[in-house]
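User: I'm designing a mutation panel for Pyrroline-5-carboxylate reductase and want to avoid disrupting the core. Could you give me a predicted structure to guide residue selection? Please restate the sequence first so the numbering is unambiguous.

Assistant: Good idea. Sequence first, for numbering, then the predicted structure tokens:
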Amino acid sequence: MKIGFIGGGNMANALIGGLVKQIDPTQIWVVEINAEARAKLAEQYGVQTQATLDHNLQALDVVVLAVKPQSLPAVAQALQPYVQQALIISIAAGIRATDLSRWLGGHPRIVRTMPNTPALIGLGVTGMAALPAVNTADRASATQIMQAVGQTVWLEQESQLDAVTALSGSGPAYVFYFMESMLAAGQQMGLSADQAQTLVMGTFVGAAQLAAQASDPVSTLRERVTSKGGTTAAALEVLAAQQVNNQIQSALEAARLRAMELGDELGGATP
Ligand SMILES: NC(=O)C1=CN([C@@H]2O[C@H](COP(=O)(O)OP(=O)(O)OC[C@H]3O[C@@H](n4cnc5c(N)ncnc54)[C@H](O)[C@@H]3O)[C@@H](O)[C@H]2O)C=CC1
Ligand SMILES: O=C(O)[C@@H]1CCC=N1
């Protein structure tokens, strides 16, 4: 299977980094307009790179669209002549498969996905939905590619991908934000940067693995840390008073609405 990426930025790097552990890198092509990014991809992963969309792409079985949503209408229209035989996988936030199909001249074989950056270390999670015309073999190919970098979840409704985008697509950024806040707090309380780093990373990795492996709900795990009248209770009282749980829900809803808006803005405005 020859796989092409259009756009070789952050997310393509994460996917390619995972894929090259399973697929011969010479079977991966990347079209990237930035020369520095192209050189880095070729050096780091041994993949083939090129600067423009051209007839070379006709050899590809699968094309992953990994440019920013705002670039996708023009990129898809320019790509149309070269990908008529290919399965198209989009990772763009918000962009609906029907709009993408239209920009590609009515292309029916489109799988819309939402991966996340832990794909780089094989621990991604990807939500997936397909146009009705996508057959079982294409669904299996798309699943195989995304499972090379982590877990996959197929959705019945494409619109659910906007919720997936808010939850797991953007999700690593919320976790990093929480980590940054804890690292700063650790240093403010007198620990060195190195000490805080070890303690915070260990806490996240340990808590995440405990939660993933436990048969008990996450709320029970939280209660087990929280001694009556103890330190955790003191901290959780502050979070509850600030209604941080509601704020997290509002933040995720803002992300979901932004994904929908991107779909409306870019899908509606283009032929
Ligand atoms: N960063 C993330 O965590 C995630 C991003 N996504 C989606 O992935 C897509 C890419 O996002 P990022 O990788 O973060 O963006 P990015 O800006 O890092 O990468 C986009 C790349 O496309 C290149 N590019 C732009 N126009 C091009 C063209 N005409 N031909 C070839 N290359 C071109 C740019 O030079 C850049 O390297 C977006 O649609 C985003 O919604 C999806 C899941 C997670
Ligand atoms: O922020 C964004 O729009 C992209 C989609 C999910 C993660 N990054």
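For picking mutation sites, this is relevant: The CA atoms of residues 9 and 37 lie 7 Å apart. The chain has two domains: 3-156, 170-259.
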